[in-house]
Task: structure prediction
Amino acid sequence: MSNSATMLTFIIVSFCFALVLIMKKDTLPSHVKRPLAILALVMVVFSFTLIVYSFFSLHKS
Result:
């Protein structure tokens, strides 16, 4: 699996994870909501960082 395919997979998984958390926020126990929300936020921010990095590295070469 190439590096770009791995990055794309992580980006898709992180956005899907955040979407599932948003859709199921009413059914999650209260003690689990905050850690999962923080994890989803970290994953989405890292995904945006990967998108920006891949954009600039694509135009650099």
